[in-house]
Amino acid sequence: MPSLLALRPDPIIQRLNDWMDNWDPLHRDGPLRRDHVIRVEETMRDGTLEIRAELPGIDPDDDVEIDLADGLLTISAERSDERSESDDGRTFSEFRYGSFRRSLRVPADTDASKISAEYRHGILMITVPMPSATRAESTRIPIKKK
Q1: In whole angstroms, how far apart are CA 13 and each of 16, 19, 20, 25, 37?
Q2: Bridge pairing between strands 35-37 and 90-105
């Protein structure tokens, strides 16, 4: 395996890459923000909402939380990774950490006990059974003439 020192990128390219990794196109919290948005795909199949969230390199047991409150399903994750290497009296260290969050609207009467989640190959799959919509009967309202 090559040394981390040999793989060290050009400092200007590294700064550009770091900036692009943290860029917020909507400038909600300025050009750099602390919480990064998790990329998701949403698909509706047979009355079930399937959410696929991209979370590579995350330990789902320790670093991921899924919460449901007031019709808002929130996925939160946190990553921390550090490594260092010494060679010829020089030390190269690298770290990457941050928190990620994404909130999605679901019907307010969604039953949290029926939501399931599975993590495989860096993808978190959340299955949300949609509540059956009770259709109210239509009632014609008479108009009085005066």
Answers
A1: 5, 10, 11, 20, 23
A2: parallel
Contacts of 34 (CB under 8 A, 6+ apart): 98, 99
**pLDDT single digits (tens) 111-136:** 889 999 999 999 999 999 988 764 55
Cα(71)–Cα(97) distance, integer angstroms: 29
Q: What is the DSSP string of 79-119?
A: EEEEEEEEETTEEEEEEEEEEEEEEEE--TT--GGG-EEEE
What counts of helices (H) and strands (E) characterise the chain? 2, 8
Sign of CA dihedral 73, 52, 55, 120: positive
Whose tokens are 């979370």? That residue is 55
- pTM higher than 0.90 for the full model? no
